[in-house]
């Protein structure tokens, strides 16, 4: 029986096929949004953005606008890789090696984590508006018609009222929520003659007794509320305004005493320099402060840091009588030690101490 010889493919044909496959495979990539990212003749850059979850919709609208601005200025096409997580989770991811060129986080203390990891310059607050790009306030969202007659934080302590806010271990939004409740408790004690942390702690404990669940992020908490969990959600004003603008029926209750939220954005120096994206990253963060970008933020329910844009839109944003900022609580360093350290008020509340 005659054995049939196997035919072999000449080595030069194998090499040609490999070359063709490599050329086709490298001719285009996809960025995080699924867009084709050209290579070769088109001069392009990819900007990596790590943001907190609540900012996702606004940032999604801002990116193509900045893309056009950058193209007109430089002739380059910029593409984006985006990640959206709870602010604390996002900060830890960047510290842990997620190489974001730009970080948009919920609060100053999350940027401080990047500073301590030598990823961001310690002088980041020398930027306009102390490095902040948006503002908001903590409000209460109720079912349409406000069936339980919620008027203020005190109503969240009533028996049977089911409350939602996220977990402050992972969510910057949750820390703003808890800061607002704790600060409202301080305001109540102050009205009685003395600013008393013990009264504020007791007030926070009463509210927390009615909390249904602690979700990972502000966006997750909002999703649970939309699914039907809870009677009242403690959240950013912009979250509710954005959902109402999309046709979801909620009532917004603005507490008499609540906190001013300020959200920062920074260039992550170490990674932007590593990627050769310093100029691009700085231009993007600067763009976020322009009137055009601030109007987009306002469209998504944020209070503008630009005085002129805020003047244009302030009719949509009531000013609570007892509005306070983080300095009323002693600043972020004191808040971290007083509320969120291992022996802080929040952990005592969780442990029932």
Helices and strands, with pairings:
Layout: H1 11-26, E1 28-30, E2 36-38, E3 44-52, H2 56-74, E4 77-85, H3 87-95, E5 102-104, H4 108-116, E6 132-143, E7 163-164, H5 172-191, H6 197-208, E8 211-213, H7 218-227, E9 232-236, H8 237-245, E10 250-253, E11 260-267, H9 269-275, H10 278-287, H11 291-299, E12 303-304, H12 307-313, H13 332-340, H14 345-351
Helix pairs in contact: 2-11, 3-4, 5-6, 6-14, 11-12
Subcellular location: Periplasm
GO molecular function: molecular carrier activity
Keywords: Periplasm, Signal, Transport
Structure at a glance:
By secondary structure, this protein is an alpha/beta fold. The chain folds into two domains: 145 residues, Periplasmic binding protein-like II (D-Maltodextrin-Binding Protein, domain 2, 3-Layer(aba) Sandwich), CATH 3.40.190.10; 160 residues, 3-Layer(aba) Sandwich (D-Maltodextrin-Binding Protein, domain 2). It is built from 14 helices and twelve strands.
State the main characteristics.
2 domains, globular, D-Maltodextrin-Binding Protein, domain 2, 43% helix, alpha/beta, 353 residues, 12 strands
Structural write-up:
The longest helix is centred in the middle third of the chain and has 20 residues, at 172-191. Strands 3, 4, 5, 6, 7, 8, 9, 10, 11 and 12 form a 10-stranded mixed sheet that branches. Strands 1-2 form a two-stranded antiparallel ribbon. It is 43% helix and 18% strand. It is of the alpha/beta class. The protein contains 14 helices and 12 strands. The chain has 2 domains: 42-134 and 262-313, 3-Layer(aba) Sandwich (D-Maltodextrin-Binding Protein, domain 2), CATH 3.40.190; 136-261 and 318-351, Periplasmic binding protein-like II (D-Maltodextrin-Binding Protein, domain 2, 3-Layer(aba) Sandwich). Helix 11 runs parallel beside helix 12 (307-313). This is Sulfate ABC transporter substrate-binding protein.
């Amino acid at each position: 029986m005659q054995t049939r010889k196997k035919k072999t493919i000449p080595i030069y044909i194998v090499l040609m096929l490999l070359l063709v496959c490599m050329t086709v495979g490298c001719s285009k990539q996809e960025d995080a949004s699924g867009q084709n990212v050209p290579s070769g003749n088109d001069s392009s850059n990819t900007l990596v953005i790590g943001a907190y979850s609540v900012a996702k919709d606004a940032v999604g609208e801002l990116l193509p606008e900045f893309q056009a601005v950058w193209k007109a200025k430089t002739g380059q096409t910029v593409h984006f890789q985006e990640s959206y997580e709870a602010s604390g989770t996002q900060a830890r991811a960047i510290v842990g090696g997620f190489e974001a060129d730009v970080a948009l986080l919920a609060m100053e203390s999350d940027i401080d984590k990047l500073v301590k990891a030598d990823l961001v310059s310690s002088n980041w607050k020398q930027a306009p508006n102390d490095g902040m790009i948006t503002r908001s306030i903590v409000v209460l969202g109720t079912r349409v018609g406000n069936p339980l007659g919620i008027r203020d934080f005190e109503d969240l302590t009533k028996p049977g009222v089911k409350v939602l806010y996220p977990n402050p271990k992972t969510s910057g939004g949750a820390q703003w929520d808890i800061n607002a409740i704790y600060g409202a408790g301080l305001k109540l004690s102050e009205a009685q003659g003395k600013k008393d942390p013990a009264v504020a702690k007791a007030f926070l404990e009463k509210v927390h007794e009615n909390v249904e669940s602690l979700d990972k992020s502000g966006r997750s908490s909002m999703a649970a509320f939309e699914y039907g969990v809870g009677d009242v959600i403690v959240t950013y004003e912009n979250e509710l305004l954005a959902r109402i603008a999309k046709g979801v029926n909620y009532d917004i209750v603005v507490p008499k005493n609540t906190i001013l939220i300020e959200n920062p954005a920074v260039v992550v120096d170490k990674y932007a320099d590593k990627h050769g994206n310093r100029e691009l990253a700085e231009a993007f963060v600067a763009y976020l402060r322009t009137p055009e970008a601030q109007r987009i933020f306002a469209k998504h329910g944020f209070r503008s840091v630009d005085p002129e844009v805020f003047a244009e839109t302030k009719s949509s944003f009531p000013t609570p009588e007892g509005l306070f900022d983080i300095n009323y609580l002693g600043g972020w360093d004191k808040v971290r030690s007083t509320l969120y350290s291992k022996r802080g008020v929040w952990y005592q509340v969780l442990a029932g101490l």
